[in-house]
Amino acid sequence: MKSKVHIPRIPEPYDSGWKRILFRYFFQALDFFVPELSALFDTTVAPVFLDKELKKIAPGNEVGHRNADVLVQVRLLSGIDQVLLCHLELQTSVDSTLGHRTFVYAYRIYDKFGNFPLSILLLTDNDPGFRPEIFTLRPTPLAGVTLQYVVIKTLDYLPRLTELRDSDQVIAQVLRIYLEFQQQRLTLGLPGVSLSQVRQWLDVKVGLMKGLLELNLDGETVSEILLFLDWIVRLPRYMEATYDQLQIEALENKEKAMTYVNTFERIALRQKYEKGLEKGLKRGKQLGKNEGKIEALQETILRLLQKDSPLPPEDIPVITNCKNLETLEKAFALCVDGKEVGEVLEVLRSL
Q1: What does DSSP say about strands 81-89 and 118-123: parallel, antiparallel, or unpaired?
Q2: What are the structural domain ranges in the chain?
Q3: Which of 214, 217, 280, 331 has the least CB density, counted as fewest CB within 10 Å?
């Protein structure tokens, strides 16, 4: 009987990696996938994302899963604002409700904004036959409604994989990594695999990471794509630690590696916290689990806030006297995000 390991569930919605890329590189994505459409927009005016408005228009509990959708307002070269509805359909199976959901969005957006949206479908499934382009409601032969979409199918780019590998465009590299991941998934299977398959997935992830570092991309772009890679290839915790170390070593061998400081710090901080937490949990056998976690967080926050210079003596009790686990976790999160010492202490004092 083969040994099995549990691969943790990603704590974000399944689509969040693609959604983050669109938020960070919206015009680049549009220019890559639909250049003739991109040419209509004034790219000197930043896109405005209307996620809160989208939730009001079509709450998820009314017409299904909504996390994959993006509503964005852009400026046309004519000076007119245009609302775009981007559906990010990232599920591996065909969704027969897609046409209906897109139509529901479209007429509600028109009702709210007085501006009929352009609907863009980003389809990342593995089914070449799933290509919905038109939704039609025709109750009688005499009249009806037809909604046509702009369709982007990631599978269409598979024959161009070699070209994508050599590109220095951020969207090309995101797409390349996703397509190579899909190919490997067909061979290795889904999460919940054997130990030998987990080791293979580690090799796959390391290979994708090293291939990315060979390209002439700036540090911020590489960091964003590495986050995307973390989203699609999720390893068990003990394997992630191995991958983190291999990533650090690869970055250290890269010229001007300090441009990747965000990646370094986030990995290092997570590892320090996990070590401290393990230490605290051991103590927790005697003190209780919560007490052990609290002590571990206090020690870790102290260490992180003093990594550049010592804290004033009067500030140390603010940390050591805090016994609220939720508050300490918030303070730790601020440390990981690189917030100022004063902001972290303010959270601890607010209890």
Answers
A1: parallel
A2: 16-156, 166-254, 266-349
A3: 214
